[in-house]
């Protein structure tokens, strides 16, 4: 009987294969045509060894720079840099009073009526004067607010790398209308009161610098963040060209001081020669701001019967702040733009053409003559972009 399976043949083949694998042939001599690998030259070995030694010695040198952990951009800073540098001041301000949690210098400005030219001059002068423009964050409150995309994009074209946001005004104005309704109180200008209402609407603004939209900033704005406010919520410069005695009857004020038992009334007599605070530049720590600040303003407005006064200067805010703010150096006072002032001032009034505006609460608007300082911060090409 035939079969396709041949076991004897298969086993024999396996045995022969095993024998071949178990007795490999001895390798013969190398082919003389194969060139052996070249030996490295001694000079290259010496150079490589020297390079390794040099790199090792570099590790022994003292460090010269470091990455500041409080700088959100982790820039390299000299190890022995000035301890009062803006970044270190900013860090101290953060740790000392809870401001600037995100590592940015928040600059807030309010504009009663839209004037992109003035906003651009403010932004460019602030950025060009700053040592750390990448840390400056603008918050512009304009009538159109978030819906005014055209204004936002025009500003971003001029300042493409800037941190800039546009905010609406309606929420703040609604609070103003509610608070000052009824006709019992003299209404302050927006610029006098909105810096203290804005943080109640926008809680993310914990510590910020309020700057009038009608100024040219020649100082390093980040230096204000380094100011130690101690227990104060507000810091501002004083304008001694305006004194308390020029706007209020001191006898009336003394009578209020003696009879009123409110916590916000001074325990001592009010100094008649007291300089009034300048509201053009303010440092505000919203966490320490009095929760009833607006109520204090209303109380003073009613106590002094300011509504019946013909003088447009509203003292209610100034008296609400009496002895309750840190006095900044006079160098932070906004000066006129005369030739003598321009050279020596850190902040000057905007001297460019202004858009006429009647939107302020008391119906007034400051007007300045035209100068040429503003043109340094707004080239003609940029001016055309804003006007298009």
The main pleated sheet reads as: 7 strands, mixed
Query: What fold name goes in the CATH topology slot of one domain?
Result: Spore Coat Polysaccharide Biosynthesis Protein SpsA, Chain A
Low-confidence stretches: 1-21, 81-87, 93-99, 359-366
CATH superfamily of one domain: Spore Coat Polysaccharide Biosynthesis Protein SpsA, Chain A
Alpha plus pi helix count: 13
Q: From the 3D coordinates, which CATH architecture of one domain would you assign?
A: Alpha-Beta Complex
Going by helix content, strand content and strand pairing, the class is alpha/beta
Question: Roughly what percent helix?
Answer: 25-40%
CATH class membership of one domain: Alpha Beta
Overall mean pLDDT: 79
Strand content of the residues, in percent? 5-15%
Distance between the termini: 107 Å
Return the string of H and E elements.
Answer: HHEEHEHEHEHHEEHEHEHHEHEH
Organism: Populus deltoides
Main location: membrane
GO molecular function, one term: metal ion binding
Protein name: Hexosyltransferase
Summarize the model shown.
With 388 residues, this protein is an alpha/beta fold. It has helices at 7-22, 42-58, 86-97, 116-129, 149-158, 170-179, 190-201, 222-225, 250-259, 293-303, 316-320, 339-344, 380-387, and strands at 65-67, 76-78, 105-110, 136-141, 163-167, 207-211, 215-217, 234-243, 275-285, 326-327, 347-349.
Task: Characterise the protein shown here.
Helix content is 35%, strand content 15%. The strands form 3 sheets. Strands 5-4-3-6-9-8-10 form a 7-stranded mixed β-sheet. A two-stranded antiparallel ribbon has the order 1-2. The model is unreliable at 1-21, 81-87, 93-99 and 359-366 (pLDDT under 50). With 388 residues, the chain is of the alpha/beta class. It contains 13 helices and 11 strands. The termini are far apart. The chain has a domain at 86-238 and 277-309 and 325-387: Alpha-Beta Complex (Spore Coat Polysaccharide Biosynthesis Protein SpsA, Chain A), CATH 3.90.550.
């Amino acid at each position: 009987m035939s079969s396709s399976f041949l076991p004897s043949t298969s086993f024999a083949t396996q045995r022969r294969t095993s024998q071949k694998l178990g007795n490999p042939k001895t390798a013969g001599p190398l082919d003389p045509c194969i060139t052996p690998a070249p030996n490295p030259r001694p000079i290259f070995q010496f150079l490589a060894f020297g390079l390794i030694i040099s790199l090792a010695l570099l590790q022994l040198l003292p460090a010269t720079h470091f990455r500041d952990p409080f700088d959100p951009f982790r820039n390299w800073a000299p190890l022995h840099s000035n301890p009062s540098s803006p970044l270190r001041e900013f860090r101290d301000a953060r740790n000392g009073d809870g401001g600037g949690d995100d590592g940015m210098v928040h600059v807030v400005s309010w504009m009663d009526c839209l004037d992109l030219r003035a906003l651009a001059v403010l932004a460019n002068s602030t950025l060009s004067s700053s040592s750390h423009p990448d840390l400056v964050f603008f918050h512009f409150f304009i009538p159109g607010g978030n819906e005014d995309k055209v204004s936002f994009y025009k500003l971003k074209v001029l300042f493409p790398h800037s941190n800039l946001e546009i905010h609406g005004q309606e929420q703040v104005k609604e609070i103003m209308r509610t608070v000052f309704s009824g006709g019992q109180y003299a209404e302050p200008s927006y610029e006098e009161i909105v810096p203290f209402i804005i943080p109640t609407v926008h809680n993310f603004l914990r510590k910020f610098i309020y700057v009038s939209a009608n100024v040219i900033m020649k100082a390093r704005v980040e230096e204000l963040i380094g100011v130690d406010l101690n227990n104060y919520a507000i810091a501002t410069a004083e304008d001694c060209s305006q004194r308390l005695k020029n706007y209020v009857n001191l006898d009336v004020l003394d009578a209020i001081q003696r009879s009123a038992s409110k916590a916000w009334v001074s325990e001592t007599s009010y100094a008649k020669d007291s300089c009034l605070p300048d509201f053009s530049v303010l440092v505000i720590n919203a966490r320490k701001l009095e929760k009833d600040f607006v109520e204090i303003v209303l109380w003073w407005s009613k106590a002094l019967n300011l509504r019946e006064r013909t003088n447009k200067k509203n003292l209610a805010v100034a008296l609400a702040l009496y002895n309750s703010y840190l006095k900044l150096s006079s160098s932070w006072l906004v000066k006129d733009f005369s030739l003598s002032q321009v050279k020596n001032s850190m902040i000057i009034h905007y001297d460019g053409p202004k858009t006429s505006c009647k939107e302020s609460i008391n119906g007034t608007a400051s007007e300045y003559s035209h100068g040429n300082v503003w043109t340094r911060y707004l080239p003609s090409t940029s001016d055309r972009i804003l006007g298009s």
